[in-house]
């Protein structure tokens, strides 16, 4: 399920593969159980900067390594694989469960719902591991929720980088916002072809 | 203007029958709840508020988060008191109600009125607080009513376990003169997290500063009828100034000897009103230049209009500032309203009119040299009018 990236990146442009971060709607990214509100936005960056932990990183609250990250995209995307760089000393997440196209998930929902896919993670401090998805299920993703239920024994969970590999489709998923049904029927809306004088045929 | 869904947890236990908050603890709580609902829905039209009761037979949700203020206020009617408050269950059910809110973009907030003793352990409350923090729910606690050993500590512990970046607050309201709602108006429970308060809170604060007149309509006015709001504000300011002048006069009679030292109640009231109005002046209501003017005067900001009046005021002793304030404010009202300010100041300059007003104020002694100085400071006044003043003194009755 995981493949290693065992060549140097100068040969081909790896960063272009991991460019889905450009399609993330950063202003609407949220995380639950983060120690610093808003720090979740710092984990989405270019591939080259994945190990650059000088800035902020996402950390869960003290004594509770569970994390929930909600990521909406600006257009529908297809996700081929996901890469996660955790922290040292057991603060890397050990499991990942994802949910697609559901918003407003909180911890009790995440713990009880069946995820679209889940992985057992390993400590990936160099960011060379990626976790492939069942591509057929990830064909039109408008938003994705990542649930990290536990860490490798650390008191908290730290995440320095989350990357998505795939392609953007430039389409937007149809969200049914408000529907107004007929309050009273209007016969003129329902004229059949026979009444309007066209050729009639039996349906 | 943060988008928020709020659940208010009301304590309707037997402890609420007590009358140490006027008219009763329960009534004071109900007033505070209606004010909070109004403030929340006014600050952002998409905000929703829900209500549940924690005592009685069990925790009962009266209204799920809705933006319909009428529905919320109507479900407050006919609430029965009884039983014991169940704080833990109340908070957890509030969290559940918020989880199922319609608009997932709203921030979640719970406001708890804790009036009766708390039977839960500190540990249990901290666990609840941690769970709230994990699901990013903010919590405001109003500690009032029954004072029990350990209750403030338990509530503080709950607050520290919930608090994430100062989004949660606690307010301790001891029993006493001030109504529960008046105390809450100036706290972050009402004004939100440091946004400086909505226009509603500002208006309500001004009303509270004007001698404790709790005027719910006063706050709603700017939306419905701005002219009425203006008229109400102006009359409120004049009434307040008049009452303060009367109080000051009474105090001045009592300690004539103290020169330059303000009588305690007056100075306290002046400090209180100036701090209240300072807070209110921060959210500048652009439309209301008049109120801004009055506030500037009350904070004695130099450089406001009528410099002649200011110069004269500095000559008069501190005791007269309240009276001068009242007169100046009424004059400024006149200058804003009419394009011909001279008309109003002529009226005010009219000596007989002024004297009749002054004599109608209880405790004002027209013979007092301070009053005479003050009258001389009015714009449009000349020395001749001062002489007229002295002529009229013998003919006035002393009140």
From TrEMBL, chain A:
Gene Ontology CC, one term: cytoplasm
InterPro entries linked to this entry: Galactose-bd-like_sf (IPR008979), PITH1-like (IPR045099), PITH_dom (IPR010400), PITH_dom_sf (IPR037047)
The PITH domain, residue ranges: 9-184
Family in the record: Belongs to the PITHD1 family.
PANTHER family: AD039 HT014 THIOREDOXIN FAMILY TRP26, PITH DOMAIN-CONTAINING PROTEIN 1
Protein name, as recorded: PITH domain-containing protein
Originating species: Hibiscus trionum
Automatic annotation (TrEMBL), chain B:
Residue spans of biased composition, Basic and acidic residues class: 242-262, 385-399
Pfam family, one: VWA_2
Gene Ontology MF terms in the entry: polyubiquitin modification-dependent protein binding
Composition skew (Polar residues), residue ranges: 264-278
GO cellular component terms, semicolon-separated: cytosol; nucleus; proteasome regulatory particle, base subcomplex
Repeat keyword on record: yes
Domain VWFA: start-end pairs: 5-189
GO BP of this protein: proteasome-mediated ubiquitin-dependent protein catabolic process
PROSITE patterns tied to this protein: UIM (PS50330), VWFA (PS50234)
This protein's UniProt keywords: Proteasome, Repeat
Organism superkingdom: Eukaryota
Disordered: region residues: 242-284, 357-399
Family annotation (InterPro entries): PSMD4, PSMD4_RAZUL-like, UIM_dom, VWF_A, vWFA_dom_sf
Family: Belongs to the proteasome subunit S5A family.
Record protein name field: 26S proteasome non-ATPase regulatory subunit 4 homolog
Organism: Hibiscus trionum
């Amino acid at each position: 399920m995981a493949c290693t990236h065992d060549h140097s990146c100068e040969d081909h442009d790896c960063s272009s593969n991991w460019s889905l971060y450009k399609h993330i709607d950063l202003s609407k990214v949220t995380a639950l159980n983060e120690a610093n509100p808003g720090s979740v936005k710092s984990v989405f960056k270019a591939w080259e900067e994945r190990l650059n932990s000088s800035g902020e990183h996402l950390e869960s609250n003290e004594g509770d390594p569970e994390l929930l990250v909600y990521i909406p995209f600006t257009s529908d995307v297809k996700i081929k694989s996901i890469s996660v760089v955790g922290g040292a000393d057991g603060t890397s997440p050990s499991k990942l469960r994802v949910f697609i196209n559901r918003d407003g998930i909180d911890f009790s929902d995440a713990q009880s719902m069946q995820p679209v896919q889940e992985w057992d993670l390993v400590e990936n401090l160099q960011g060379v591991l990626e976790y492939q998805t069942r591509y057929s299920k990830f064909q039109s993703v408008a938003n994705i929720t990542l649930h990290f239920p536990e860490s490798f024994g650390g008191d908290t969970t730290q995440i320095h980088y989350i990357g998505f590999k795939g392609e953007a489709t430039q389409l937007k998923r149809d969200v049914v916002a408000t529907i107004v049904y007929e309050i009273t029927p209007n016969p003129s809306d329902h004229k059949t072809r026979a009444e309007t004088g066209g050729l009639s045929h039996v349906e | 203007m943060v988008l928020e869904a709020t659940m208010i947890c009301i304590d309707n236990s037997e402890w609420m029958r007590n009358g140490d908050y006027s008219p009763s603890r329960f009534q004071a709580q109900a007033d505070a709840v209606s004010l909070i609902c109004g403030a929340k829905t006014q600050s952002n039209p998409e905000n929703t508020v829900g209500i549940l009761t924690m005592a009685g037979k069990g925790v009962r949700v009266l209204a799920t988060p809705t933006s319909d203020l009428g529905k919320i206020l109507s479900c407050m009617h006919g609430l029965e008191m009884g039983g014991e408050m169940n704080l833990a269950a109340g908070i957890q059910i509030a969290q559940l109600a918020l989880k199922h809110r319609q608009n997932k973009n709203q921030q979640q907030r719970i406001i708890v009125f804790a009036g009766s003793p708390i039977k839960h352990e500190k540990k249990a409350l901290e666990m609840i607080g941690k769970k709230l923090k994990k699901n990013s729910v903010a919590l405001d606690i109003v500690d009032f009513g029954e004072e029990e050993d350990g209750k403030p500590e338990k509530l503080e512990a709950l607050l520290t376990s919930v608090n994430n970046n100062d989004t949660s607050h606690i307010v301790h309201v001891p029993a006493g003169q001030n109504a529960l709602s008046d105390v809450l108006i100036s706290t972050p429970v009402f004004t939100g997290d440091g946004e400086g308060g909505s226009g509603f809170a500002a208006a309500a604060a001004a009303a509270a500063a004007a001698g404790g007149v709790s005027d719910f309509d006063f706050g709603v006015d700017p939306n419905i009828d701005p002219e009425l709001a203006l008229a109400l504000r102006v009359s409120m300011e004049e009434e307040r100034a008049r009452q303060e002048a009367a109080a000051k006069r009474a105090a001045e009679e009592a300690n004539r000897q103290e020169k330059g030292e303000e009588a305690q109640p007056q100075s306290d009231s002046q400090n209180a009103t100036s701090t209240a109005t300072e807070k209110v002046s921060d959210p500048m209501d652009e439309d209301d230049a008049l109120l801004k003017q009055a506030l500037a005067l009350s904070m004695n900001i130099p450089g406001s209009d009528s410099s002649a009046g200011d110069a004269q005021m500095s000559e008069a002793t501190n005791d007269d500032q309240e009276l001068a304030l009242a007169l100046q404010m009424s004059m400024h009202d006149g200058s804003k309203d009419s394009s011909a300010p001279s008309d109003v100041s002529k009226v005010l300059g009219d000596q007989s009119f002024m004297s009749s007003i002054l004599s109608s104020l209880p405790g004002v002694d027209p013979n007092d040299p301070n009053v005479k100085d003050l009258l001389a400071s009015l714009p449009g006044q000349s020395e001749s009018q001062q002489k007229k003043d002295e002529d009229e003194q013998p003919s006035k009755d002393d009140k």
